[in-house]
Amino acid sequence: MRAQNNFCKSLFFVLLAALFWTNTACRAEHLQAEGAGSDQQSARDLIAQADKLYEGREDLAHARQAIALLRQARLADAGNYEAAWKLAKFNYYLGDFTSDGNERERSFRDGIEAGKTAVKLQPEKPEGHFWLGANYGGRAQGSALSGFSAIKDIRQEMETVLRLDEGFEGGSAYMALGQLYLEAPGLLGGDSKKAVQLLEKGLHYGENSSPYRLQLAKAYLAVKRKDDARKQLNAIINIKPDPQYVPEYKKATDEARQLLDKNL
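Given the sequence above, the corresponding structure tokens read:
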């Protein structure tokens, strides 16, 4: 009888211990899930703040602050795809518009790393591929060596964008490839005519994009089609700018006026 009581007591304590550890494990999992959810919400809040700052990116201080917030978002939630591709996008803008050579180089380098991360997180979405390719292109413009080594990478990323979403960002992958053929035809085995073909093919996506029409105008000038170039440059000046792309519109318009004064 005593042995039976001892057995029951032992069984009771075993069950009690099991219940304790089960409850402890469940609580730990719950707290871990709560922590992950909190981190994800924190990342979303930081991205929203960065987006708001980026709207005022014409002041580069706002662009820099937006980039800093996206870095915090990446620390809070390393698997957040939106934070990764937007970090690549914002770095590209800063690199493209800054007058500081060191900041330009650093921005494109950081943009490439963020773009690579985005591609790893979501390889079948276009944003990571596009902004990775854009940053490759930005860095290539500042270095002949980088330009030579980046050509294949740029082409691969932009062709991937066309496969995933041909009209992404107003056909900007067509614009990037057209620029690539225009500026480095010998290395690509193409020429200015190929650039024109690509840009004309994607024009219906980018007809309201001043940077797209500017690139097409440059391609027309390269193949001596001045009348067509003039039409594109005048169209740029007459386009009603999209409120979300005012800095890009201003830059393209300034260059369009310079080309009209110089060539036409």
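Residues 11-20 have pLDDT under 50 and may be disordered. Try to locate this feature in the token string yourself.
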